[in-house]
Protein 1
Amino acid sequence: MARTRRQRSPQAWLNQIFRAGQVAQGNIIRRSMASIQRFASPDALEAEVRRRGFHMAVIGDQFVILCNQTGTIHVVC
């Protein structure tokens, strides 16, 4: 018998991401574009990042979220 995966709402899925221990420690989390598009949406992720006062970058096919609320970020490219 095949298992069925319980579908979560996009907001529930995003909440799960932001409950990770890395978030509580102010670290970085990353998720692939494919998983964001599958379980939520890039717009919903961006809204949640902004709501929490975090910062996000899109690098290749990854969303990289800086889980702190510092006002200054120095980026070297």
Protein 2
Amino acid sequence: MSNIIKKNLKIEGMHCTSCAMNIDFDLEDIEGVKSAKTNYAKQICVVEYEGKKVSEEELLKSIKKTGYKAVIL
């Protein structure tokens, strides 16, 4: 049985909806991430992932690598 975790992340540095899509694509490329939905207007990303395969640090590192800052809410 998978250990699915759902986290809300506050994203800083987005300038448009394409920024939000880039974050989603990069997060969903991580093995164990089930979904990522970033809302540009709210500056929030909701990510669902398998806790045994992905850590919070990996999520934040991926977002930082994409060029944005994120914190867990």
